Structure formats: structure tokens, C-alpha cells
């Protein structure tokens, strides 16, 4: 009987996923020394996954870069951002097409600085509150990892997304 006959398929998939995660972690550890400058920490705790959203042909124009790097693809810039404790968004592109500008802020904290620019694409980490999940004028509060939220409901409403009505 071979190893593959004994081990169920789901277990093999889990082992392969763990191998992939270890290799990915080693890859990220290898690229972190290339950071060239720093600004105060703006993201805590560190995250291991991010859902980046792209705004094509736009550049978030602001001072105080967390890092200014050269990478060959936007994916590489995303990896650098993910493992840079100050990064919450980045600009990728430029005249050479490989500039990676790691930012310690995003379009929500600096919306007036999002400019149309055909040389760059702007990427930001999607937050749970971006889709406005709280109904009936509830206030969305993003929790620590940006993927969870809590709704602060107005007086007459209740529930995770403030859709339930309180009966008095």
C-alpha cells in the first residue's frame, strides 16, 4: 500500500497548503530588508492576508512614504506591502513601470489626494466597512484586522447590521 492510498485527499491538500505557506513566508522574509525609509507605524496588529482593490490610472499623492521600492510586478509590491507593518495601501507603476510606493495611509484618510495619473495604479486594502454594511444610519466600526466590523446602531435598530427593529 502506498502513501497516497493511505492518506486521504483532504489531508494531502492540507499538507500541500502548509508547504506553500512556509515557502511563501520564507519568500516574504527574504524581501523585507529592501525597505529604504520609514514613517510611524500605522497598522497593528500585522496581517497575513489582504484583499487589495485596484483603482487603475490613479495615484495617491501624499508625503511620508513608508518605503519606495523597485519591483517587477504589482504582485511583488502587494507582497512587500502585506509584510510591511506600516503599509495600508500602495502606488505601483511610474515611468519605468516598476515603482512601488508603500503608503502608511489610504484613500479614506487622504481622499483629496487621489489623482488621475495614467502611469500609476493605486491599490488599497479593502476594509469591512467599505461596502457600508450597517443599515438604518448605523455606524460601521472596522475591527483590528480590517475584515471584521461592528455596527453601532441608532436607537430604534439592533442586530449585526442594524436591520432588526426594536419593539418598545
From TrEMBL:
SUPFAM superfamilies: EGF/Laminin
Lineage of origin: Eukaryota, Metazoa, Cnidaria, Anthozoa, Hexacorallia
Superkingdom, natural source: Eukaryota
Keyword annotations from UniProtKB, A to Z: Disulfide bond, EGF-like domain
Entry annotated with the keyword Disulfide bond: yes
Annotated S-S bridges: 134-151, 153-162
Domain EGF-like: 125-163
Annotated family: Belongs to the EGF domain peptide family.
Record's protein name: EGF-like domain-containing protein
Amino acid at each position: 500500500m502506498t502513501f497516497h492510498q493511505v492518506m486521504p485527499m483532504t489531508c494531502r491538500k492540507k499538507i500541500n497548503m502548509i508547504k506553500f505557506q512556509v515557502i511563501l513566508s520564507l519568500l516574504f522574509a527574504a524581501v523585507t530588508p529592501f525597505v529604504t525609509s520609514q514613517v510611524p507605524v500605522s497598522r497593528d496588529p500585522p496581517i497575513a492576508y489582504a484583499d487589495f482593490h485596484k483603482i487603475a490610472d490613479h495615484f495617491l499623492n501624499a508625503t511620508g512614504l513608508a518605503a519606495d521600492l523597485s519591483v517587477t510586478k504589482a504582485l511583488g509590491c502587494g507582497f512587500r506591502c502585506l509584510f510591511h507593518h506600516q503599509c495600508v495601501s500602495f502606488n505601483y507603476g511610474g515611468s519605468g513601470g516598476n515603482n512601488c510606493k508603500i503608503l502608511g495611509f489610504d484613500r479614506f484618510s487622504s481622499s483629496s489626494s487621489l489623482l488621475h495619473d495614467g502611469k500609476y495604479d493605486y491599490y488599497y486594502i479593502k476594509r469591512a466597512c467599505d461596502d457600508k454594511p450597517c443599515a438604518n444610519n448605523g455606524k460601521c466600526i472596522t475591527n483590528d484586522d480590517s475584515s471584521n466590523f461592528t455596527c453601532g446602531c441608532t436607537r430604534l435598530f439592533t442586530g449585526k447590521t442594524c436591520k432588526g427593529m426594536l419593539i418598545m
